Automatic annotation (TrEMBL), chain B:
Belongs to the CPA3 antiporters (TC 2.A.63) subunit B family. It holds the Pfam family MnhB. It comes from Nitrogeniibacter mangrovi. The keyword Transmembrane applies. This is Na(+)/H(+) antiporter subunit B. The lineage of its organism: Bacteria, Pseudomonadati, Pseudomonadota, Betaproteobacteria, Rhodocyclales. It is a multi-pass membrane protein. Keywords: Cell membrane, Membrane, Transmembrane, Transmembrane helix. InterPro entries: CPA3_antiporter_subunitB, MnhB. Signal peptide: none annotated. Its main location: membrane. Residues 6-127 form the Na+/H+ antiporter MnhB subunit-related protein domain. GO terms for cellular component: plasma membrane.
């Protein structure tokens, strides 16, 4: 994954960048499978490697295949990115060890969900039960976010249909 | 692309299975990994696959623009409607226990419809984004002509 990320940053040919990001997404999906988050892995494979690759290829088709040389030296952005990344890594040092049963998150509502969800909802997949039932508002909000994104895309990218086009649009189908 | 018979035959073979897998992910989401979001994305991917192989105009014939734009809103409305149904039947908003005499069945019913709403909106938005990108050059050329 590191190699793919460096390749994406170094590559000037955007077609290569798109393919590398697809590879990166597939690697990420396998990593998520290893972490037992199959739902997320499925999403990552379908969205990251599938649909975004097609969308990026469509964007390349519209814009052109090579990235232009940057006008400024990349030192300031590089410094900011490195500092932010370093802070985040430093922050992870304070986290409890991976899959530690005594971690605060395992002590709070997680045991209740795991014990009660199959009884209360009759849904064996606790992830689905939590997402759709216990955190229904949350998921409604997420769906609304997706909805808003769709509306934004429609208003930003869609071209207004002119009368002349509407007349000729019928036989192009 | 139009003459590529291998791709066209393969697409015809694969797309039904992709849609079948999407419904499996959708309706089996209670028991295995999956759910509305994943199913919606897989449906969208299947239709995008169709559009890539057979061309955007034929995909637009199968799933027209107007239908997609309506579905974007319909999904959210289904989700919100489940919440309203909870209020009508005497519970709180998005309270599924009241949707059936048996609270557990009510939960099942609520989760099912909520996931349907999520899948519809996600699939429609993904397709809309794809259509918007893929159609842009074509529409521009048509406008110039």
């Amino acid at each position: 994954m590191g190699a793919a990320a460096i390749g994406i940053a170094r590559q000037r040919n955007l077609f290569g960048v798109v393919l590398l990001s697809g590879i990166y997404s597939f690697l990420m999906a396998t990593l998520l499978v290893v972490l037992d988050a199959v739902d997320v892995a499925m999403t990552e494979a379908a969205v990251g490697a599938g649909i975004s690759t097609v969308l990026l290829l469509g964007a390349i088709y519209l814009t052109g295949g090579t990235e232009s040389k940057p006008m400024h030296k990349p030192w300031l952005p590089l410094f900011i990115v490195a500092a932010t990344g370093g802070t985040l890594v430093y922050g992870t040092l304070g986290l409890p060890a991976f899959s530690d049963p005594d971690a605060p998150i395992q002590q709070h509502v997680a045991p209740r969900y795991l014990v009660e969800a199959p009884k209360e909802t009759g849904v064996p997949n606790v992830v689905t039960a939590v997402l759709a039932s216990y955190r229904g508002y949350d998921t409604l909000g997420e769906t609304t976010v997706v909805f808003t994104a769709g509306i934004g895309i429609i208003t930003l990218i869609r071209r207004r249909k002119t009368r002349q086009k509407r007349g000729s649009g019928e036989e192009t189908g | 692309m139009r003459m590529d018979i291998v791709l066209r035959v393969l697409a015809k073979l694969l797309i039904p299975f992709a849609l079948m897998f999407a419904s499996y992910v959708q309706f089996h989401g209670d028991f295995g990994p999956g759910g509305g979001f994943q199913a919606g994305v897989i449906v969208a991917a299947a239709i995008i696959f169709y559009a890539v192989i057979y061309g955007l105009p034929s995909a637009r014939k199968v799933v027209p623009d107007g239908l997609i734009e309506a579905l974007i809103a319909i999904g959210v409305l289904i989700y919100a409607g489940v919440g309203v149904a909870g209020i009508v039947l005497g519970g709180n908003y998005l309270d599924y226990f009241v949707l059936d005499h048996n609270p557990v069945h009510g939960q099942h019913r609520g989760i099912f419809w909520v996931e349907v709403g999520v899948a519809i909106t996600v699939a429609a938005v993904m397709l809309k984004i794809f259509y918007a990108f893929a159609a842009r050059r074509r529409d521009a050329e048509e406008d110039d002509a």
